[in-house]
Write a structure and sequence with these properties.
Elements (H helix, E strand, L loop, with lengths): L1 H24 L1 H4 L2 H26 L1 H6 L1 H5 L6 H37 L4 H31 L3 H36 L9 H51 L10
Helix pairs in contact: 3-6, 3-7, 3-8, 6-7, 7-8, 7-9, 8-9
């Protein structure tokens, strides 16, 4: 019961907020497209953060305790172990993933109906849905690799969150705020003549940065975890256990007379 409550707590809080805001502000809130966009976006971010944290500790604790090394003493293969982690993650987060996907699709459909199926809005909704699934795939593979390679679960969590969720937005904001403006001033005199509206260019930039980034992280994580799973699982724990011993002897004289 506690596990179920912790898993669904963010969505229960969101539901209560929607009920309160709709009661207080009425149609000014629940009929406002910006409320739909923010709800869909924040629900995706919360889900990604939850899965990022889950993946950070999935292998880290077992590796440090030596449990992974014992598993490889059996007949289990790397692919079977990865498949087991995938099934466990899917079993735990199946409900939230379906809920967030439906929220994004539902609010996206409302937004498209609101704008009369405007091309830019439709592309934005479809791109957001595609990016949600690409990010979930990237979080699994990249998160599994960093969980195995990082010295601790906390370190893995910070690494996964930064590289998978934060850094692409930093690149995107930097490009939209600086690169595009400089490009416009130098070549178009502050008035781009590419035949596209600035909003369309910004949307395309967001999509062309985020999606390849997620695909690249997934490919990198999958390659590393499938190629070096056994090596990292059987060697890293021993190295970390022997590290404090080697440090404690640094600078200690061999003889009390020296």
């Amino acid at each position: 019961t506690k596990r179920w409550f912790n898993l669904w707590l963010p969505w229960l809080v969101g539901l209560l907020f929607w009920g309160w805001a709709s009661y207080v502000h009425g149609s000014l809130f629940y009929a406002e497209p910006s409320s739909w966009v923010m709800t869909a976006y924040l629900s995706s971010v919360i889900l990604k953060l939850m899965i990022s944290s889950e993946m950070a500790y999935r292998l880290s604790d077992d590796r440090r305790s030596g449990a992974l090394e014992l598993l490889f003493a059996t007949s289990i293969t790397t692919s079977e172990m990865i498949q087991g982690h995938r099934q466990a993650l899917h079993g735990k987060y199946r409900g939230p993933i379906i809920l967030v996907s439906l929220l994004n699709a539902g609010f996206g459909l409302l937004l498209m109906l609101w704008d009369g199926f405007d091309t830019k809005t439709t592309c934005m909704v479809l791109a957001h849905l595609l990016l949600l699934w690409l990010d979930l795939r990237a979080l699994f593979w990249f998160g599994l690799w960093r969980s195995l390679k990082s010295p601790s679960g906390n370190h893995a969590n910070r690494t996964i969150t930064f590289f998978a969720l934060t850094l692409p937005w930093i690149v995107y904001v930097g490009m939209t705020l600086f690169s595009f403006q400089i490009f416009s001033v130098l070549f178009f005199g502050n008035r781009p003549t590419l035949g596209l509206e600035p909003g369309t260019i910004i949307l395309a930039t967001w999509f062309l940065i985020q999606c390849p980034w997620a695909i690249g992280l997934a490919i990198l994580g999958r390659r590393e975890i499938t190629s070096h799973f056994r090596v990292l699982a059987t060697s890293t724990s021993a190295q970390h256990q022997s590290l404090p011993v080697s440090i404690s002897h640094q600078g200690v004289p061999d003889s009390p007379t020296t």
